[in-house]
Amino acid sequence: MSQKSLVDELQQLQLAVELIELGARLQVLETETEISRARLVKLYKEVRGVSPPKGMLPFSTDWFMTWQPNLHASLFHGFYRRLRSQGVPRMDAFVKAYRFYLEHVGEEEPVLALTRAWTLVRFFESELLDLATCQTCTGHFVIHAHTPSHDYVCGICQPPSRAGKTAARRKAREQDMQREALAVKLG
Ligand SMILES: [Zn+2]
């Protein structure tokens, strides 16, 4: 980082701290900043008080297609798209969108962890994932790229039968999410 200005370096450190606080794995930080691995490990320990977990990110695109993750991923990506369309820089938009998502779902352990949200953005960027418009609610939902989507119906409008067994409280929350997804679409 010797070539970079102090302001650049400070901004990168700030981003790294923010990402660590939100639960980022080391691989996210290594990809999105130019800070050395050794410094990132040190930073991680300072912020979280523990060493970063080891190992590769196990995520595949399939996880985003399962029922509940798909709703959460679609909600998060709606926030992200809206911010990007307003000209917010990529990583700023990412962090903001993730904070919106956390505020919205209000859970201690969100379905979509930050590293998964980041993986989602990367899958879109490498065109492994795409969006489909639900024919019933007209919300936008995450699908595999290059799959037919003209008659797509989302997981809220057509939940799998096992989802019918979940609590009414959960259902109410999904309906909230649907309204939010629509607001994102119209916003
Ligand atoms: Zn729908």
Radius of gyration, Cα only, in angstroms? 18 Å
Span between termini: 39 Å
Instruction: Characterize the biggest β-sheet.
Output: 2 strands, antiparallel
Shape: elongated
Given helix and strand content, the structural type is mainly alpha
How is the largest sheet built, in terms of strand order? 1-2
Tally the beta strands: 2
Small-molecule components bound:
zinc ion
Order of helices and strands: HHHHHHEEH
Q: In terms of per-residue confidence, which ranges show pLDDT below 50 for 5 or more consecutive residues?
A: none
Number of helices: 7
**Residue fraction in strands:** 5-15%
Question: What does this molecule look like?
Answer:
The protein has 187 residues and is mainly α. It is 54% helix and 5% strand. It has 7 helices and 2 strands; from the N terminus they run H-H-H-H-H-H-E-E-H. It has helices at residues 6-21, 26-32, 37-48, 67-85, 90-105, 114-125, 168-186, and strands at residues 129-133, 140-144. Strands 1-2 form a two-stranded antiparallel ribbon. A hairpin with a 6-residue loop joins strand 1 and strand 2. Helix 1 (6-21) packs across helix 3, helix 4 packs across helix 5 and helix 4 packs parallel to helix 7. The radius of gyration is 18 Å and the shape is elongated. It binds zinc ion (ZN). Zinc ion (ZN) is lined by residues 134, 136-137, 139, 154, 156-157. Residues 134, 136-137, 139, 154, 156-157 line the site of zinc ion (ZN). Heterohexamer composed of two FlhC and four FlhD subunits. Each FlhC binds a FlhD dimer, forming a heterotrimer, and a hexamer assembles by dimerization of two heterotrimers. It is found in: Cytoplasm.
